[in-house]
Design a protein that fits this description.
This protein has 7 helices and no strands. The protein is an all-alpha fold. It has one domain. Helix 1 runs parallel beside helix 5. It is globular.
Length: 144
Amino acid sequence: MPGVILLVLILFFYSIVLLEIWDKVKLNSPTFNSKLEEIKSFFDKGSVKFIMAFSGLIIGIWNFFAPDFGYPEGGPTIIGALLPSIAMILSSVVIYPGIIEILNIPQEEKNKYYEFIEKYRGVAGVIALVVAILHAILFKIILF
């Protein structure tokens, strides 16, 4: 159960980052708006995005193959929580699209990838949010 709660919190946090909530919320309070700008500048740093993407990839892969500690036998589930794992990996790749630079593919393909990521960034945020809510509500029955 703690793993479910942790994954839900991380997916919820990643959805906030992907949806860039700080750009959509503006109040008449200058202090609040300045705090939002600080948050935005923090998450715009490449190193922060890289750390989030790398840790998200590790967590997503771990969750995919993690043993189920909730049952007495505690055996591996092969496909632990399919949708949350896929959502975590997808969110990680969208948060830091520069991760594709390590692959040896032509630059035209990389440019198509960057355009696709920029176009569907918000969709990935919504997917992460929906999967986080579903995983919180139906933590025992997410696909497998």
